[in-house]
Task: structure prediction
Amino acid sequence: MNTLKKLMKSIRQYKLHSILSPVCVTVEVALECIIPLYMIEMLKKIEEDISIRNILFYGGILLVLSAFSLVFGILAGKFAATASTGFAKNLRQDMYYRIQGFAFSNIDKFSAPSLVTRMTTDVANVQMAYMMIVRIAVRSPIMLIFSLIMAFVINVKIAFVFVAVIPVLGIGLFVMFRLVDPIFTRVFKKYDAMNESIQENIKGIRVVKSYVRDEYENDKFKKTSNDVRYDFLKGEKIIALANPLLQFCMWFSILMICFLVPMFGVKEGVGRSSEMSSLIVYASQILSSLMMLSMVMIMISMSNTSSKRIVEVLSEESDLHAPAQPIYEVADGSVRFEDVDFKYDVKAERRALKGVNLDIKSGETIGILGGTGSSKTSLVNLIPRLYDATSGHVYVGGHNVKQYDLDTLRNEVAVVLQKNVLFSGTIKQNLRWGDPNASDEELERVCKLAQAHEFIMGFPDKYDTYIEQGGSNVSGGQKQRLCIARALLKKPKILILDDSTSAVDTKTDALIRKAFAEEIPDTTKFIIAQRVASVQDADKIIIMDNGSIADVGTHEQLLARNAIYQEVYYSQNKSSDGEEVTADGKKN
Result:
């Protein structure tokens, strides 16, 4: 019931269409049930007086009834289609807006492929079920009741044939419904696995090609696709039994009508044949309405799982909660960590960060070094509140990050993540993500800081060069420099570069750092890097080890006392003959 209530909120402006469709269906069914009864009376009248006038008169009335039935049927279909497609549009919109408000931890909980499946396949299933509910689910029981009443009006004794056949068909369809329900519940989990396989292959297509793993990926997709196919085939085989069962019940009913009409019907003549024809029509309507009702139930069964998955997204609350009275201004770029612990999942035993204490003044340049998995990225993710600390406090500009309005905080913290993302559009459009109102001169200024201006001017269309989805038509180093320029456009008080110069050469890296020092001295800069050369000029260098801060100091201090820093430094600054190499490439 809660699932239904949650979904119904997305109907909104399509409530009127959702009401008009059942109303039109009711009128359509009433007319369809009246027509066979009217045919008996019409044939009797014509039999009494076979004249052109009578034929035209009663035939005209029949034509009008049929025309009205057609019109109301068309209107019912139109209203149902408008209501269902509008409902689906609102559902997708509500889900998309909800996802936009999720914290990273919420997205981690669902996974990207699952969210895609929920917004596409699951919404399509709910849309189809809703259209069937507002039209066929209303039509079938009304048709069943009206046809049964009309059959009793024509001949009470013969109408009991339907009373005997309906339970047989109903029980058979119910058993089928019970059998296919768990199958369709299971199949959507396999849909997620199939979408994940597709998404992973497309994103990593260069790796797949370079390692010649096409056959392996084909086999993996074939397996997930066959899993989906197997369950659907199993369910469809069960559903396919419904048609033979319906045909059996229908022909049995017709046979019994033909057998019983001479015994319990009217005398021979037009009356008997019209009565028999009408009863056969009602038999068809009664049994087909049951069949349609069973299809609705099966569709509802399929959409039941989908609706629960949709409601899971709509009901999910962001792990990041806005304060009652937020702060709308960040004073400066100072950062402080007090006894911070962090887990990606509250149920996890392992802590990604343990007992972190840091005090960073505004305008300082902070280098962060550490091995893979040492939680360097986890540390900086807490500053713009991409995640919340599990325990302890993170302060920016003298205030706890949880006290800030989230947009305000993130507008003052620019992050260039490990996985650089460019969107389809021109270079200008991508850069203006940092500032939609930035002038062309401002774009050139930040691109010069990020050492991107030179290669942009080498393109035929310069700043109007079109970037393909994901930045596939620029190199890794070019992509990184464009992302750095985009971050600088925000004019942030804190700039975080998460290994974002790994794809550029050491000379370009040095030029970028020099530009930062000269052009944005008041901005606090966090530089996560693998190269010592990228951070050795920093005011402080933080050494991360297994989620803890192993040491903090300048280049000279750490080189003198810290074993981890010494190992990294000497491994990167030794020539083949074992002599130390300085930053300018000379041997000591």
Summary: The chain has a mean pLDDT of 82. The first helix runs from residue 2 to 8.
